[in-house]
């Protein structure tokens, strides 16, 4: 009887989790629709709206991956890893299907709590690379290496083939502040950005416990 009750409780919790995930997915769609409507009514909001819609889309894909709303949308395998999560974030970028974004390193488990900041950080990096960096060049490429040391997970984002204007000082905009907020406050880590002749390099160290802390 106790086992049957535990099974019923687990099933109810799973149904509730899927329903909540479905509602969150609907909220993403509603917010995106409101932004699109506002952009149509205000041309000055056009460029900002495209950036904002991109961020919301990245969050939606990350959420659906780690918290699927149905069994059909459940990712293959039981464990969600950083590599598979990042591939989900990058799948809408043509450069990823062209194999110009390469992810390497060990499979590192990640919980749903960390999906949002990870999605925001790498969506910003990929978007900037398309606008100004390596992916604005058809021959440019990006390597993203994952590694671990003790309780630290290191991400090394390296762009190759970008046309860097040395006379122009790199600008720090909203995207950079977003990355800083996600890395330092939400993931409990730090990062360092270096500008090379052929593209930017960003090394980010975060605590493994922040990535694997259950929500």
Question: Explain this structure to me?
Answer:
The structure is a single chain. The protein has 215 residues and is an alpha+beta fold. The chain folds into 2 domains: 1-74; 77-215, Histidine kinase-like ATPase, C-terminal domain (Heat Shock Protein 90). It has 7 helices and 5 strands; from the N terminus they run ααααβαββαββα. The protein has helices spanning 2-41, 46-66, 82-90, 94-97, 112-131, 174-186, 208-211; strands spanning 101-104, 141-149, 152-160, 190-196, 199-207. Strands 1-2-3-5-4 form a 5-stranded mixed β-sheet. A hairpin with a 2-residue loop joins strand 4 (190-196) and strand 5. Helix 1 packs antiparallel against helix 2 (46-66). The protein starts with a helix and ends with a helix. 24% of the residues are buried. Residues 68-75 have low confidence and may be disordered.
CATH-level-4 superfamily name of the largest domain: Histidine kinase-like ATPase, C-terminal domain
Report the mean per-residue pLDDT as an integer. Answer: 77
How many domain units? Answer: 2
Count the beta strands: 5
| Number of discrete helical segments | 7
What shape does the CA trace take? globular
Output the structural class: alpha+beta
Widest sheet: strand order?
Answer: 1-2-3-5-4
CATH level 3 topology of the largest domain: Heat Shock Protein 90
Question: Which residues form runs of ≥5 with pLDDT under 50?
Answer: 68-75
Q: What is the helix content?
A: 40-55%
SSE order in H/E notation?
A: HHHHEHEEHEEH
- What amount of the residues lies in strands? 15-25%
**CA distance, first residue to last residue:** 30 Å
């Amino acid at each position: 009887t106790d086992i049957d009750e535990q099974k019923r409780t687990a099933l109810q919790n799973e149904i509730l989790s899927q329903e909540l995930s479905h509602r969150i997915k609907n909220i993403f769609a509603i917010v995106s629709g409101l932004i699109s409507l506002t952009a149509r009514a205000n041309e000055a909001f056009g460029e900002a709206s495209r950036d904002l819609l991109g961020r919301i889309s990245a969050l939606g894909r990350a959420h659906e991956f780690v918290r699927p709303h149905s069994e059909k949308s459940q990712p293959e395998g039981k464990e969600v890893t950083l590599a598979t999560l990042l591939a989900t974030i990058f799948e809408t970028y043509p450069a990823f299907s062209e194999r110009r974004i390469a992810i390497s390193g060990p499979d590192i488990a990640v919980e749903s709590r960390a999906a949002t900041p990870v999605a925001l950080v790498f969506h910003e990096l990929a978007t900037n690379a398309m606008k100004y960096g390596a992916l604005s060049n058809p021959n440019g490429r990006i390597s993203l290496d994952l590694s671990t040391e003790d309780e630290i997970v290191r991400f090394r984002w390296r762009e190759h083939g970008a046309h860097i204007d040395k006379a122009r000082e790199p600008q720090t905009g909203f995207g950079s502040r977003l990355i800083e907020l996600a890395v330092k406050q939400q993931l409990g880590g730090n990062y360092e950005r270096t500008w090379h002749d052929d593209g930017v390099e960003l090394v980010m160290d975060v605590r493994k416990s922040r990535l694997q802390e259950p929500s």
